[in-house]
Amino acid sequence: MQRRNGVYGLAVALGLMLITGCSESDATAGKAAAHPGEETYNRFCFSCLASGVAGAPKLGDKAAWAPRIAKGQALLLQSTLRGVPPGMPAMGLCTSCTAEDLETVVDYMVQQSR
């Protein structure tokens, strides 16, 4: 009797997995929904923008970001590529990033700070 219940439980679990999908695909779907600039932000920008080092606008600080956003993303990208004296170096010290990588980071920061 106990073996039958175990087999029945396994069959139910497998059936539910087929109907609902397994949790791994759910985790993958969650990662796919993340903004493409978020990972680069977390690797290269977070340390300054989370704490406001050297006057950097904190991510999500709408008042600090509003005048920057008003200038447009193209200008924000140029500032990121060239740097902003005295505190932000060119490319935000991400020497391996392309202009496209940094463009996605700028877009991510703008979306988080509106």
Describe the structure.
With 114 residues, this protein is mainly alpha-helical. 68% of the residues lie in helices and 0% in strands. The chain folds into 2 domains: 1-33; 36-113, Cytochrome Bc1 Complex, Chain D, domain 2 (Orthogonal Bundle), CATH 1.10.760.10. The longest helix has 19 residues, at 2-20. The chain starts with a helix and ends with a helix.
Task: Compile the SSE list and pairings.
Blueprint: H1 2-20, H2 23-33, H3 38-49, H4 62-71, H5 73-82, H6 99-113
Helix pairs in contact: 4-5, 5-6
Can you give keywords for this protein?
114 residues; mainly alpha; Cytochrome Bc1 Complex, Chain D, domain 2; 6 helices; 0% strand; globular
CATH homologous superfamily placement of the largest domain: Cytochrome c-like domain
Which second-level CATH architecture of the largest domain applies? Answer: Orthogonal Bundle
The chain-level mean pLDDT equals: 79
What count of domains describes the coordinates?
2
What fraction strand?
under 5%
Instruction: Determine the CATH topology of the largest domain.
Output: Cytochrome Bc1 Complex, Chain D, domain 2
What's the helix-strand series? Answer: HHHHHH
- Ranges with pLDDT <50 over ≥5 residues? 6-29
Task: Write a concise synopsis of the structure shown.
With 114 residues, the chain is mostly helical.
